[in-house]
Task: structure prediction
Amino acid sequence: MFSELISLIMKYANDGFFNATEKLNSFISASNNILDLVSQIGTIPEVINHDSTEEKLFAKASDAILSRAFRELGLKSTIISERADSADVIARSIIHGYTLVADAKAFRLSRTAKNQKDFKVSALSGWRKDNDYAVLCSPYFQYPRAQSQIYAQAIDNNVCLLSWEHLIFLLTHEIKENEEVNLSVLWGFGKSLSHKVVVAEKKKCFIKDFDKLLLSVTGCMQAEFDKALSTYIQSITKRGKEEKDYWKSERKEIKAYTREKAISELIKAKKIDEKIRQIDSFIKGISRG
Result:
């Protein structure tokens, strides 16, 4: 299912961004294997070029998958169309009445060290506006393992640091909101932790503490979650091999370039012609003035 999604992203990239997004949303909404999509969407495939239309469509697809996952949990969820100063997804509890906004994150396995700006925790808190909760959904193993400013920001601003792997666990165990199950206990984790953590320890990673809360919601034991994490690691390891194979293939192709082809590709990579055209356009613009 995930491989089909990537094929559709490549196929629709030239159909106009709005039309392509609508087609991808329809595909995701109709998917009968949401678990496969949730389990893979946290990793951006290397075949998708950086800062490309395809990468932007992948980001929109991650929004749609997150929204679909919330619906599977029993919430009413939609994608927020506007992008400026706004979260990606909004959801409402049909039974308990609360609302939340959420932001979906995905990273490349080849990505170097990330910083707090990559997670946009404080910005997400601002995007909450009149909603009760703010949720960031990022790959479990991409969250900093030691101290980080994002944990202090999450506590101070009551932002839930959720992961795609947490969602998989919830969906696998068919957790769904009802009169007895109120998932706001998860979304409000930051606020509850703020009453327990001293200032000196606010930057400390609290993902393991959130894991325990997740287990209390699902009624599962730690051993079961550890087993699930092991399965997730195996899946990511498999993806890692696929992504490395892509770059090995690229390296092999580059080594086979003729001298002329290599020069042409380097000029293209440095965007030299585009830069020259931009300079010409600027000079012409001011000359007319």
